[in-house]
Automatic annotation (TrEMBL):
Subunit structure and binding partners: Homodimer.
Note: In eukaryotes there are cytoplasmic, mitochondrial and chloroplastic isozymes.
Top EC class of this enzyme: transferase
Alphabetized GO MF terms: L-aspartate:2-oxoglutarate aminotransferase activity; pyridoxal phosphate binding
Name of the protein described by the UniProt record: Aspartate aminotransferase
Amino acid sequence: MRPQTHSSSSSTDRRLNSLLRHLQNNSNSIIMDSQTTIISSSPTSAFNTNHSVFANIPQGPEDPILGVTVAYNKDPSPIKLNLGVGAYRTEEGKPLVLDVVRRAEQIILNDRSRVKEYLPITGLPDFNKFSAKLIFGNDSPAIQENRIVTVQCLSGTGSLRVGAEFLARHYHERTIYIPQPTWGNHPKVFTIAGLSVKYYRYYDPTTRGLDFQGLLEDLRSAPSGAIVLLHACAHNPTGVDPTLEQWEQIRQLMRSRGLLPFFDSAYQGFASGNLDADAQSVRIFVADGGECFAAQSYAKNMGLYGERVGALSIVCKSTDVASRVESQLKLVIRPMYSNPPIHGASIVATILKDRNMFSEWTVELKAMADRIISMRQQLFDALRARGTPGDWSHIIKQIGMFTFTGLNTEQVKFMTKEYHIYMTSDGRISMAGLSSRTVPHLADAIHAAVTRVA
Ligand code: KET
Protein backbone atom coordinates (compact mmCIF):
# COMPACT_ATOMS: atom_id res chain seq x y z
CA MET A 1 0.00 0.00 0.00
CA ARG A 2 1.34 3.41 -0.86
CA PRO A 3 1.07 6.20 1.70
CA GLN A 4 -1.39 8.90 0.61
CA THR A 5 -0.75 12.62 0.63
CA HIS A 6 -3.24 15.06 2.11
CA SER A 7 -1.80 18.38 1.05
CA SER A 8 1.12 20.00 -0.70
CA SER A 9 2.97 23.23 -1.58
CA SER A 10 3.76 26.25 0.60
CA SER A 11 2.35 26.75 4.05
CA THR A 12 -0.01 29.63 3.26
CA ASP A 13 -1.28 27.98 0.09
CA ARG A 14 -1.78 24.82 2.02
CA ARG A 15 -3.89 26.58 4.65
CA LEU A 16 -6.07 28.21 2.02
CA ASN A 17 -6.35 25.12 -0.12
CA SER A 18 -7.33 23.00 2.79
CA LEU A 19 -9.90 25.54 3.92
CA LEU A 20 -11.33 25.78 0.42
CA ARG A 21 -11.51 22.03 0.19
CA HIS A 22 -13.44 21.96 3.44
CA LEU A 23 -15.87 24.52 2.06
CA GLN A 24 -16.28 22.94 -1.37
CA ASN A 25 -16.57 19.35 -0.28
CA ASN A 26 -18.73 20.24 2.66
CA SER A 27 -16.49 17.74 4.43
CA ASN A 28 -15.86 17.85 8.16
CA SER A 29 -16.01 20.90 10.32
CA ILE A 30 -14.73 24.16 8.97
CA ILE A 31 -11.86 25.55 10.95
CA MET A 32 -10.63 29.07 10.47
CA ASP A 33 -7.54 30.44 12.08
CA SER A 34 -6.28 33.93 12.55
CA GLN A 35 -4.14 33.76 9.44
CA THR A 36 -7.05 33.19 7.09
CA THR A 37 -9.46 35.94 6.13
CA ILE A 38 -12.58 35.30 4.13
CA ILE A 39 -13.94 38.30 2.28
CA SER A 40 -17.59 38.11 1.34
CA SER A 41 -17.98 38.20 -2.43
CA SER A 42 -21.68 39.03 -2.29
CA PRO A 43 -22.56 41.64 -4.94
CA THR A 44 -25.44 43.03 -2.82
CA SER A 45 -24.63 46.57 -1.86
CA ALA A 46 -27.88 47.70 -0.25
CA PHE A 47 -28.42 46.57 3.31
CA ASN A 48 -31.11 43.92 3.36
CA THR A 49 -32.48 42.94 6.76
CA ASN A 50 -33.47 39.45 5.55
CA HIS A 51 -30.25 38.59 3.85
CA SER A 52 -27.56 36.93 5.89
CA VAL A 53 -23.96 37.40 4.90
CA PHE A 54 -23.72 33.67 5.61
CA ALA A 55 -26.71 32.78 3.41
CA ASN A 56 -24.63 30.41 1.28
CA ILE A 57 -22.75 28.70 4.03
CA PRO A 58 -22.92 24.93 3.62
CA GLN A 59 -24.07 22.71 6.45
CA GLY A 60 -21.06 20.91 7.93
CA PRO A 61 -21.37 17.29 9.03
CA GLU A 62 -21.16 16.24 12.68
CA ASP A 63 -17.79 15.07 13.99
CA PRO A 64 -17.40 11.29 13.48
CA ILE A 65 -16.77 10.75 17.22
CA LEU A 66 -18.39 13.64 19.12
CA GLY A 67 -21.35 13.53 16.69
CA VAL A 68 -22.20 10.07 18.05
CA THR A 69 -23.02 11.68 21.41
CA VAL A 70 -25.17 14.30 19.65
CA ALA A 71 -27.20 11.51 17.97
CA TYR A 72 -27.38 9.57 21.25
CA ASN A 73 -28.73 12.59 23.13
CA LYS A 74 -31.57 12.93 20.61
CA ASP A 75 -32.71 9.31 21.03
CA PRO A 76 -35.62 9.03 23.53
CA SER A 77 -35.24 5.24 23.96
CA PRO A 78 -34.77 4.12 27.59
CA ILE A 79 -32.43 1.31 26.52
CA LYS A 80 -30.04 3.52 24.55
CA LEU A 81 -26.33 3.04 25.13
CA ASN A 82 -23.49 5.41 24.19
CA LEU A 83 -20.30 3.53 23.35
CA GLY A 84 -19.00 6.26 21.05
CA VAL A 85 -16.77 8.74 22.77
CA GLY A 86 -13.90 7.46 24.89
CA ALA A 87 -15.15 8.68 28.24
CA TYR A 88 -15.16 6.61 31.42
CA ARG A 89 -18.45 5.63 33.06
CA THR A 90 -19.07 3.83 36.35
CA GLU A 91 -20.89 0.51 36.71
CA GLU A 92 -24.01 2.66 37.09
CA GLY A 93 -23.28 4.26 33.71
CA LYS A 94 -22.45 7.64 35.27
CA PRO A 95 -19.48 9.94 34.55
CA LEU A 96 -16.87 9.74 37.30
CA VAL A 97 -15.10 12.54 39.14
CA LEU A 98 -12.19 10.93 40.99
CA ASP A 99 -12.19 11.32 44.79
CA VAL A 100 -8.63 12.61 44.63
CA VAL A 101 -9.72 15.27 42.15
CA ARG A 102 -12.54 16.40 44.47
CA ARG A 103 -10.02 16.54 47.32
CA ALA A 104 -7.57 18.62 45.26
CA GLU A 105 -10.39 21.00 44.31
CA GLN A 106 -11.32 21.37 47.97
CA ILE A 107 -7.71 22.26 48.83
CA ILE A 108 -7.59 24.79 46.01
CA LEU A 109 -10.93 26.30 47.07
CA ASN A 110 -9.87 26.66 50.70
CA ASP A 111 -6.55 28.27 49.87
CA ARG A 112 -7.31 32.01 49.98
CA SER A 113 -3.86 32.83 48.67
CA ARG A 114 -4.82 31.43 45.28
CA VAL A 115 -5.90 34.06 42.80
CA LYS A 116 -7.20 34.05 39.25
CA GLU A 117 -4.34 35.96 37.62
CA TYR A 118 -3.21 35.03 34.12
CA LEU A 119 -0.79 32.14 33.99
CA PRO A 120 2.44 32.57 32.03
CA ILE A 121 2.07 31.84 28.29
CA THR A 122 3.62 28.42 28.92
CA GLY A 123 1.27 27.60 31.81
CA LEU A 124 1.62 26.65 35.46
CA PRO A 125 5.31 25.91 36.18
CA ASP A 126 4.65 23.12 38.72
CA PHE A 127 2.18 21.49 36.37
CA ASN A 128 4.80 21.45 33.61
CA LYS A 129 7.54 20.15 35.84
CA PHE A 130 5.50 17.27 37.25
CA SER A 131 3.91 16.42 33.90
CA ALA A 132 7.39 15.91 32.42
CA LYS A 133 8.30 13.64 35.34
CA LEU A 134 5.12 11.67 34.86
CA ILE A 135 5.79 10.81 31.25
CA PHE A 136 9.59 10.72 31.10
CA GLY A 137 10.13 9.22 34.57
CA ASN A 138 11.35 10.75 37.83
CA ASP A 139 14.97 9.95 37.10
CA SER A 140 14.96 10.83 33.41
CA PRO A 141 18.45 12.05 32.38
CA ALA A 142 16.85 14.47 29.92
CA ILE A 143 15.03 16.16 32.83
CA GLN A 144 18.18 16.24 34.96
CA GLU A 145 20.12 17.70 32.06
CA ASN A 146 17.46 20.38 31.73
CA ARG A 147 16.90 19.87 28.03
CA ILE A 148 13.14 19.31 27.95
CA VAL A 149 10.71 22.15 27.43
CA THR A 150 7.17 21.49 28.65
CA VAL A 151 4.25 23.82 28.04
CA GLN A 152 0.73 23.49 29.42
CA CYS A 153 -1.81 23.25 26.58
CA LEU A 154 -5.51 22.66 26.05
CA SER A 155 -5.60 18.93 26.73
CA GLY A 156 -4.19 16.38 24.28
CA THR A 157 -5.69 18.00 21.19
CA GLY A 158 -4.30 21.44 22.02
CA SER A 159 -0.88 19.94 22.74
CA LEU A 160 -0.84 18.19 19.37
CA ARG A 161 -1.95 21.36 17.64
CA VAL A 162 0.69 23.57 19.30
CA GLY A 163 3.36 20.98 18.47
CA ALA A 164 2.14 20.83 14.87
CA GLU A 165 2.13 24.64 14.49
CA PHE A 166 5.65 24.79 15.90
CA LEU A 167 6.86 22.11 13.48
CA ALA A 168 5.20 23.78 10.49
CA ARG A 169 7.07 26.98 11.33
CA HIS A 170 10.45 25.70 12.42
CA TYR A 171 11.12 22.21 11.13
CA HIS A 172 12.62 21.50 7.73
CA GLU A 173 10.47 18.45 6.92
CA ARG A 174 6.74 19.09 6.62
CA THR A 175 5.56 15.51 6.23
CA ILE A 176 4.04 13.69 9.17
CA TYR A 177 3.32 9.96 9.03
CA ILE A 178 0.35 8.80 11.06
CA PRO A 179 -0.84 5.23 11.59
CA GLN A 180 -3.54 3.67 9.39
CA PRO A 181 -6.02 3.78 11.10
CA THR A 182 -5.67 6.40 13.81
CA TRP A 183 -7.73 8.76 15.97
CA GLY A 184 -9.97 10.61 13.49
CA ASN A 185 -8.83 14.06 14.57
CA HIS A 186 -5.11 13.46 13.86
CA PRO A 187 -5.17 14.15 10.09
CA LYS A 188 -7.25 17.28 10.64
CA VAL A 189 -5.05 18.71 13.40
CA PHE A 190 -1.87 18.25 11.38
CA THR A 191 -3.27 19.32 8.00
CA ILE A 192 -4.78 22.52 9.33
CA ALA A 193 -1.46 23.39 10.96
CA GLY A 194 0.18 23.22 7.53
CA LEU A 195 1.80 19.78 7.66
CA SER A 196 1.43 17.22 4.94
CA VAL A 197 -0.13 13.98 6.23
CA LYS A 198 0.80 10.50 5.04
CA TYR A 199 -0.11 7.12 6.50
CA TYR A 200 2.04 4.23 7.57
CA ARG A 201 0.61 0.73 7.77
CA TYR A 202 -0.31 -0.24 11.32
CA TYR A 203 -3.25 -2.62 11.64
CA ASP A 204 -3.81 -5.86 9.78
CA PRO A 205 -7.56 -6.66 9.72
CA THR A 206 -6.92 -10.31 8.82
CA THR A 207 -4.83 -11.02 11.94
CA ARG A 208 -6.51 -8.25 13.96
CA GLY A 209 -2.98 -7.44 15.07
CA LEU A 210 -0.07 -5.16 14.26
CA ASP A 211 1.16 -5.09 10.66
CA PHE A 212 4.69 -4.84 11.93
CA GLN A 213 6.42 -5.59 8.61
CA GLY A 214 4.21 -3.05 6.83
CA LEU A 215 4.97 -0.47 9.50
CA LEU A 216 8.73 -1.00 9.19
CA GLU A 217 8.61 -0.90 5.40
CA ASP A 218 6.64 2.34 5.32
CA LEU A 219 8.88 4.04 7.86
CA ARG A 220 11.96 2.78 6.03
CA SER A 221 10.77 4.45 2.84
CA ALA A 222 9.75 7.72 4.54
CA PRO A 223 11.94 10.70 3.63
CA SER A 224 14.77 11.28 6.05
CA GLY A 225 13.69 13.67 8.80
CA ALA A 226 9.94 13.03 8.40
CA ILE A 227 7.82 13.34 11.54
CA VAL A 228 6.17 10.14 12.80
CA LEU A 229 3.11 10.20 15.04
CA LEU A 230 3.16 7.31 17.52
CA HIS A 231 0.47 6.38 20.04
CA ALA A 232 2.39 5.99 23.32
CA CYS A 233 0.05 3.20 24.45
CA ALA A 234 -3.51 1.92 24.01
CA HIS A 235 -3.63 2.71 20.29
CA ASN A 236 -6.91 4.36 19.31
CA PRO A 237 -9.00 2.87 17.68
CA THR A 238 -7.39 -0.58 17.34
CA GLY A 239 -6.26 -1.37 20.91
CA VAL A 240 -3.16 -2.94 19.34
CA ASP A 241 0.25 -1.84 20.67
CA PRO A 242 3.75 -2.91 19.64
CA THR A 243 5.59 -5.09 22.18
CA LEU A 244 8.63 -3.59 23.92
CA GLU A 245 10.91 -5.52 21.54
CA GLN A 246 9.00 -4.10 18.58
CA TRP A 247 9.25 -0.59 20.04
CA GLU A 248 12.98 -1.05 20.25
CA GLN A 249 13.11 -2.04 16.58
CA ILE A 250 10.96 0.94 15.65
CA ARG A 251 13.31 3.18 17.62
CA GLN A 252 16.41 1.83 15.89
CA LEU A 253 14.86 2.22 12.46
CA MET A 254 13.59 5.73 13.16
CA ARG A 255 16.87 6.92 14.59
CA SER A 256 18.83 5.44 11.72
CA ARG A 257 16.57 7.26 9.23
CA GLY A 258 16.57 10.50 11.24
CA LEU A 259 12.77 10.36 11.66
CA LEU A 260 11.34 12.64 14.35
CA PRO A 261 9.05 10.90 16.89
CA PHE A 262 5.90 12.71 18.01
CA PHE A 263 4.16 10.73 20.75
CA ASP A 264 0.50 11.14 21.49
CA SER A 265 -0.04 10.01 25.08
CA ALA A 266 -3.76 10.22 25.80
CA TYR A 267 -4.10 7.01 27.84
CA GLN A 268 -1.13 6.77 30.22
CA GLY A 269 -2.27 4.45 33.03
CA PHE A 270 -5.33 3.26 31.14
CA ALA A 271 -3.60 0.52 29.17
CA SER A 272 -2.07 -1.52 31.98
CA GLY A 273 -3.23 0.36 35.06
CA ASN A 274 0.43 1.28 35.62
CA LEU A 275 1.65 4.78 34.74
CA ASP A 276 5.31 3.79 34.30
CA ALA A 277 4.59 0.72 32.19
CA ASP A 278 2.40 2.77 29.86
CA ALA A 279 5.18 5.32 29.27
CA GLN A 280 7.86 2.78 28.32
CA SER A 281 7.59 3.47 24.59
CA VAL A 282 8.35 7.16 25.14
CA ARG A 283 11.15 6.46 27.62
CA ILE A 284 12.90 4.08 25.21
CA PHE A 285 13.17 6.94 22.72
CA VAL A 286 14.31 9.50 25.29
CA ALA A 287 16.94 7.15 26.72
CA ASP A 288 18.98 7.23 23.51
CA GLY A 289 19.61 10.96 23.88
CA GLY A 290 17.68 11.84 20.72
CA GLU A 291 14.96 14.41 20.24
CA CYS A 292 11.25 13.78 20.48
CA PHE A 293 7.85 15.39 21.00
CA ALA A 294 5.19 14.22 23.45
CA ALA A 295 1.59 15.41 23.81
CA GLN A 296 -0.02 14.45 27.13
CA SER A 297 -3.69 14.49 28.07
CA TYR A 298 -5.22 14.29 31.54
CA ALA A 299 -8.71 13.86 30.09
CA LYS A 300 -8.92 10.11 30.60
CA ASN A 301 -6.38 9.21 33.27
CA MET A 302 -7.53 11.91 35.70
CA GLY A 303 -11.05 12.17 34.32
CA LEU A 304 -10.53 15.88 33.58
CA TYR A 305 -12.15 15.79 30.12
CA GLY A 306 -13.88 19.16 30.14
CA GLU A 307 -11.14 20.92 32.11
CA ARG A 308 -8.91 20.67 29.03
CA VAL A 309 -5.60 19.91 30.75
CA GLY A 310 -2.59 18.65 28.85
CA ALA A 311 1.04 19.32 28.08
CA LEU A 312 3.39 19.41 25.15
CA SER A 313 7.00 18.44 25.80
CA ILE A 314 9.86 18.77 23.37
CA VAL A 315 12.98 16.86 24.30
CA CYS A 316 16.01 18.69 22.88
CA LYS A 317 19.71 17.95 22.67
CA SER A 318 20.79 20.77 24.99
CA THR A 319 19.51 23.34 27.48
CA ASP A 320 20.39 26.07 25.06
CA VAL A 321 18.27 24.63 22.24
CA ALA A 322 15.43 23.92 24.71
CA SER A 323 15.30 27.52 25.82
CA ARG A 324 15.18 28.82 22.24
CA VAL A 325 12.49 26.26 21.40
CA GLU A 326 10.51 27.50 24.39
CA SER A 327 10.79 31.09 23.21
CA GLN A 328 9.27 30.06 19.87
CA LEU A 329 6.51 28.01 21.49
CA LYS A 330 5.46 31.17 23.29
CA LEU A 331 5.18 32.92 19.94
CA VAL A 332 2.93 30.11 18.71
CA ILE A 333 0.70 30.14 21.79
CA ARG A 334 0.29 33.87 22.50
CA PRO A 335 -1.73 34.70 19.33
CA MET A 336 -3.68 31.42 19.55
CA TYR A 337 -5.18 31.58 23.06
CA SER A 338 -2.72 33.81 24.95
CA ASN A 339 -2.23 31.55 27.95
CA PRO A 340 -3.89 28.40 29.28
CA PRO A 341 -6.61 28.07 31.98
CA ILE A 342 -5.58 27.79 35.60
CA HIS A 343 -8.07 25.51 37.34
CA GLY A 344 -7.46 22.10 35.76
CA ALA A 345 -3.69 22.50 35.81
CA SER A 346 -3.86 23.42 39.50
CA ILE A 347 -5.78 20.20 40.21
CA VAL A 348 -3.16 18.13 38.39
CA ALA A 349 -0.21 19.90 40.04
CA THR A 350 -1.78 19.49 43.49
CA ILE A 351 -2.12 15.75 42.94
CA LEU A 352 1.21 15.12 41.24
CA LYS A 353 3.34 16.87 43.82
CA ASP A 354 1.81 15.30 46.91
CA ARG A 355 3.00 11.75 47.55
CA ASN A 356 -0.24 10.63 49.23
CA MET A 357 -2.52 12.17 46.67
CA PHE A 358 -0.43 10.72 43.88
CA SER A 359 -0.77 7.22 45.26
CA GLU A 360 -4.48 7.74 45.87
CA TRP A 361 -4.74 8.66 42.18
CA THR A 362 -2.91 5.53 41.04
CA VAL A 363 -5.38 3.38 43.01
CA GLU A 364 -8.37 5.08 41.39
CA LEU A 365 -6.74 4.89 37.98
CA LYS A 366 -6.05 1.18 38.37
CA ALA A 367 -9.69 0.64 39.37
CA MET A 368 -10.85 2.32 36.14
CA ALA A 369 -8.42 0.27 34.04
CA ASP A 370 -9.47 -2.94 35.81
CA ARG A 371 -13.16 -2.26 35.28
CA ILE A 372 -12.51 -1.89 31.55
CA ILE A 373 -10.55 -5.15 31.48
CA SER A 374 -13.41 -6.88 33.28
CA MET A 375 -15.88 -5.51 30.71
CA ARG A 376 -13.75 -7.09 27.97
CA GLN A 377 -13.99 -10.47 29.66
CA GLN A 378 -17.73 -10.13 30.26
CA LEU A 379 -18.47 -9.18 26.67
CA PHE A 380 -16.28 -11.99 25.36
CA ASP A 381 -18.03 -14.51 27.62
CA ALA A 382 -21.47 -13.20 26.62
CA LEU A 383 -20.72 -13.65 22.90
CA ARG A 384 -19.34 -17.13 23.50
CA ALA A 385 -22.45 -18.03 25.50
CA ARG A 386 -24.62 -16.93 22.56
CA GLY A 387 -22.52 -18.91 20.09
CA THR A 388 -21.99 -15.76 18.04
CA PRO A 389 -20.12 -16.74 14.86
CA GLY A 390 -16.49 -15.58 14.70
CA ASP A 391 -13.40 -15.48 16.87
CA TRP A 392 -13.91 -12.77 19.46
CA SER A 393 -10.65 -13.26 21.34
CA HIS A 394 -9.46 -9.83 20.13
CA ILE A 395 -11.92 -8.33 22.64
CA ILE A 396 -9.79 -9.61 25.51
CA LYS A 397 -6.45 -9.15 23.74
CA GLN A 398 -6.84 -5.49 22.80
CA ILE A 399 -5.49 -2.82 25.11
CA GLY A 400 -7.01 0.38 26.50
CA MET A 401 -10.36 2.03 26.32
CA PHE A 402 -11.62 0.66 23.03
CA THR A 403 -12.46 -2.58 21.29
CA PHE A 404 -12.05 -2.49 17.54
CA THR A 405 -14.79 -5.04 16.99
CA GLY A 406 -14.45 -5.72 13.26
CA LEU A 407 -18.15 -4.88 12.80
CA ASN A 408 -18.75 -3.05 9.52
CA THR A 409 -20.61 0.21 8.92
CA GLU A 410 -23.85 -1.56 7.97
CA GLN A 411 -23.74 -3.69 11.10
CA VAL A 412 -23.11 -0.58 13.21
CA LYS A 413 -26.09 1.17 11.57
CA PHE A 414 -28.25 -1.86 12.29
CA MET A 415 -27.22 -1.92 15.97
CA THR A 416 -28.02 1.76 16.33
CA LYS A 417 -31.37 1.48 14.58
CA GLU A 418 -32.59 -1.74 16.19
CA TYR A 419 -30.84 -1.72 19.57
CA HIS A 420 -30.18 2.01 20.20
CA ILE A 421 -26.49 1.30 20.63
CA TYR A 422 -24.32 4.22 19.56
CA MET A 423 -20.73 3.74 18.38
CA THR A 424 -18.39 5.07 15.72
CA SER A 425 -19.00 3.76 12.19
CA ASP A 426 -15.60 2.00 12.08
CA GLY A 427 -16.92 -0.53 14.62
CA ARG A 428 -15.04 0.89 17.59
CA ILE A 429 -16.73 0.60 20.96
CA SER A 430 -15.73 2.39 24.12
CA MET A 431 -15.50 -0.39 26.71
CA ALA A 432 -15.56 2.26 29.43
CA GLY A 433 -19.17 3.01 28.51
CA LEU A 434 -20.26 -0.56 29.29
CA SER A 435 -21.39 -2.11 32.58
CA SER A 436 -22.37 -5.59 33.75
CA ARG A 437 -25.98 -4.49 33.33
CA THR A 438 -25.56 -3.46 29.66
CA VAL A 439 -23.24 -6.24 28.43
CA PRO A 440 -26.16 -8.64 27.61
CA HIS A 441 -27.88 -5.95 25.52
CA LEU A 442 -24.68 -5.28 23.57
CA ALA A 443 -24.00 -8.99 23.11
CA ASP A 444 -27.56 -9.50 21.78
CA ALA A 445 -27.05 -6.63 19.35
CA ILE A 446 -23.67 -7.89 18.10
CA HIS A 447 -25.10 -11.40 17.73
CA ALA A 448 -28.03 -10.12 15.70
CA ALA A 449 -25.81 -7.86 13.57
CA VAL A 450 -23.34 -10.63 12.77
CA THR A 451 -26.03 -13.20 11.95
CA ARG A 452 -28.42 -10.90 10.09
CA VAL A 453 -26.34 -8.20 8.37
CA ALA A 454 -23.58 -9.10 5.92
N1 KET B 1 -5.22 11.56 21.22
C1 KET B 1 -5.94 10.43 21.14
C2 KET B 1 -5.28 9.21 20.61
C3 KET B 1 -7.27 10.44 21.56
O1 KET B 1 -7.95 9.31 21.47
C4 KET B 1 -7.86 11.63 22.03
C5 KET B 1 -9.27 11.64 22.42
C6 KET B 1 -7.05 12.76 22.12
C7 KET B 1 -5.74 12.70 21.70
C8 KET B 1 -7.54 14.08 22.62
O2 KET B 1 -8.11 14.11 23.84
P1 KET B 1 -8.26 15.47 24.67
O3 KET B 1 -9.63 15.42 25.21
O4 KET B 1 -8.05 16.62 23.73
O5 KET B 1 -7.19 15.40 25.70
N2 KET B 1 -10.10 10.74 22.05
C9 KET B 1 -11.49 10.57 22.43
C10 KET B 1 -12.31 11.82 22.49
C11 KET B 1 -12.29 12.65 21.25
O6 KET B 1 -12.42 12.14 20.13
O7 KET B 1 -12.14 13.87 21.40
C12 KET B 1 -12.12 9.52 21.52
O8 KET B 1 -11.45 9.00 20.61
O9 KET B 1 -13.28 9.16 21.76
